[in-house]
Design a protein that fits this description.
259 residues; alpha/beta; seven-stranded parallel sheet; 7 strands
Length: 259
Amino acid sequence: MDLGIRGKRAIVCASSKGLGLACARSLAREGVDLVMLARGREVLEAAAADIRAETGVSVVTVAVDITTPEGRAAVLAQCPDPDILVTNAGGPKPGNFRDWSREDWIAALDANMLTPIELIRLTVDKMMERKFGRIVNITSGSVKMPIEILGLSNGARSGLTGFVAGLARQTIAHNVTINNLLPGPFATDRLKETMGERARKTGKSIEELIAERGASLPAGRIGDPAEFGDACAYLCGARSGFMTGQNILLDGGSYPGTH
């Protein structure tokens, strides 16, 4: 399917690896020009070079901390009028809420709630003026089914979800949609990180725990990031304009509910 977005411009956050990179790659395969950003320049440049070589699209890289005003300004200087915005940030550390300080909570909110909201604020009005915009927030399956050790993430991402629910109904009449993609377990560095604490407690290896997690899913496996990227590209497509304010789970059937 041609998604009808060839030549559009996208900002993809935290796109040097993992799910952000998968989204960037899928958009590039649809002919979308990219601004890719992450904190680590070397890994980011390597990822961008691979995408350029495969797809031939324009890829601009910006090595910044997007949670800072300076970082956001640097990205928007490269692409002040994006047609597509994919917000993403590595999740905060796992653990026990009794061990977290106020600073830990503020950092989680900055990365996983306030930064996406600020990026939306800086781009959505021009999207509405142009009568095209697609915003996708990468959140987490924990929004639907909270994970005990990920309380910082549960709280911050749920706040973003509530905000989006209100705004998305105001923008769709202008052909600007805002949706959230909620990943379950995918084969990424983040999954290894979250399994690390369980490995220490159980004495099992991270690889054993990941294999067990995959076997426990109805799908019988962990997700492939490419599957996530293609779902993101569809939500960014010209044909998805009747869908907004949705929380779309990609979790291998883990969530047992009907909504």
